[in-house]
Amino acid sequence: MKHDIGEILREWPASETENVRKITDSDGVEKVQVRVDQGAFQGILQMDLDGRPDGRRPHGRDFALDHYKDRQARHIVVNGDDDQFTLSADDCAELFEESFRVYQRYVFLLQIEDHSRVVRDTERNMEVFRFVNRHAESEEDRMHLERWWPYIIRINATAVSLLHSRNDDLDRAIEVANEAINRIKNLDPIEAEEFKDESVRSLEALAELASDFETKKPLGKREQLESALVEAVEREDYERAAELRDQINAYRETLPSPQEDR
What we know:
Blueprint: H1 6-11, E1 20-24, E2 30-38, E3 41-48, H2 64-79, H3 89-111, H4 115-135, H5 139-143, H6 149-166, H7 170-185, H8 193-216, H9 221-234, H10 238-254, H11 258-261
Antiparallel strand pairs: 1-2, 2-3
């Protein structure tokens, strides 16, 4: 059996800008690969694009979370509700490990602009956040993931808004970014540096994203005329500038007055 990956590494030279790629294996399974270049160490990290990143099926389910939700459902059947359903420290550790693997994947998915899968993975991890916070036996485990809410809200909203942008729905893309800003502002504060730092960073990033979308929106008729007027004045084409002023005034006259709006 050939174990040396030297040929693969030579075919894919290390690069700061092209270190992540999608591939399809011999069984038709899509995977993401990350080219690693750490001094003397050269390698490739690989994870599945769907299901668990490591391809495992814990407890015979696609995800450990699915297993614990099954257990919760059985508890409800027997007891009528899930008030006494709990997750042990070992249960939480398994969920934490799984959510970290999913986090690692969606970081790379962002790089290759696979935004649909980023939405899927961030939504799954948010479900883990809520599930653990509600059912963990210990306070420490219940609060373990809460510090990351600003970050995951930002990444989820970024991916969702970029999908809307790709479909030329810039208004909805802006709405999604602004909704995420308000959601982060309304989070219950957590006494953790990660929460504080990510709140600031995420609010700034989302505001910048919304602003970028605003600049990409096509100009309305009045804005187009005013922009053309500025250009005409700058090149001292005063005849054209006068024509544009007349067009702007004529356009204004077609607009309803405030009293008519009432």
